[in-house]
Amino acid sequence: MSVVDIKQHDSDSVSRYVVAIKVFIEQKPRAFEFSLADRSNYSYPMLVGHNLLRGIAIVDVSQSYTLDKPTKEYIARTLNK
């Protein structure tokens, strides 16, 4: 686990831990690094930015939920590979 300094727009920088998380995109597992922050007061527990999607996906902001959510069984099988 590593630590990064995140620059805030109107305040001092904040140190955050960075963890590797396996994310499923089109039912394929991919490992990405995320910095940890308390998002309990926000609508979304995780933010996915353009850097994560670069070279993997094209985003059409006029559509949402275009892929089916993988089943728990599929995820369990994939994680055990």
SSE arrangement:
Layout: E1 2-6, E2 14-25, E3 28-35, H1 50-53, H2 72-79
Antiparallel strand pairs: 1-2, 2-3
How many helices?
Answer: 2
Runs in which pLDDT lies below 50 for 5 or more consecutive residues are none
Beta-strand share of residues: 25-35%
Mean pLDDT: 86
Residue share in helix: 10-25%
Strand order within the widest beta sheet:
1-2-3
Count of discrete domains: 1
Please report the total strand number as a whole number. 3
Oligomeric description of these chains: single chain
- Rg from Cα: 15 Å
Please tell me what the overall shape is: globular
**Class from helix and strand fractions:** alpha+beta
Major sheet attributes: 3 strands, antiparallel
Instruction: Return the string of H and E elements.
Output: EEEHH
Distance between the termini: 23 Å
Entry keywords:
single chain; 81 residues; alpha+beta; three-stranded antiparallel beta sheet; 2 helices; 31% strand; globular
Structure summary:
The chain is of the alpha+beta class. The protein has helices at 50-53, 72-79; strands at residues 2-6, 14-25, 28-35.
Structure write-up:
The chain has 81 residues and is an alpha+beta fold. The chain has one domain. 15% of the residues lie in helices and 31% in strands. The protein has two helices and three strands; from the N terminus they run E-E-E-H-H. The protein has helices at 50-53, 72-79, and strands at 2-6, 14-25, 28-35. Strands 1-2-3 form a three-stranded antiparallel β-sheet. Strand 2 (14-25) and strand 3 form a beta hairpin. It is globular, with a radius of gyration of 15 Å. The protein starts with a strand and ends with a helix. The model has no long low-confidence stretch (mean pLDDT 86).
